[in-house]
Design brief:
7 helices; globular
Length: 196
Amino acid sequence: MAPPMSAGRFLEALRDEGVTVVEVGDWEHHNRNHKGPWGPVHGVMIHHTVTSGSERTVEICRVGHPSLPGPLCHGVITKDGSVHLIGYGRANHAGLGDDDVLRAVIAEKGLPPDNESNSDGNRHFYGFECENLGDGEDPWPDVQLDAIERVSAAICRVHGWTERSVIGHLEWQPGKVDPRGFTMDWMRERVEERLK
């Protein structure tokens, strides 16, 4: 269990890990905190956007849409490996997910199958949306995968978490498929190596 780090510490942690950061507007104060608490935080969640075009993707994730107001994550990882910080605090990215998965993340154990949606993930996870169509064919450039690894490791390093605190949306909420195009087990192996 951990309180979220400050926005300044978050930015510093990403930069210390070698992440190329782009600060978008007043990202430090753009959040959904009026809808509920943010924290304690327990992990990092990775998504794909089902969009193309970096500028458009960042704008959609920052503003959201009529049925789901932004921010839709804390950072958008574009194809060029840049991490666009668009919000900090509660964000509309995780939604309701499986409490058994949450307990496994907290305990840093293997994840059980996600079969129910009864826990507030927006409260407990840092979220990163990754620019990708999510069709299994849109490529994941090496620089983008490297950025996913680095942001995940940066947050785990600050909180003293292992790679088991990094999950995909598909592992949290039944019916979700993101991120599609690589496995989270493979990404966790990369994060584990980076944390050594």
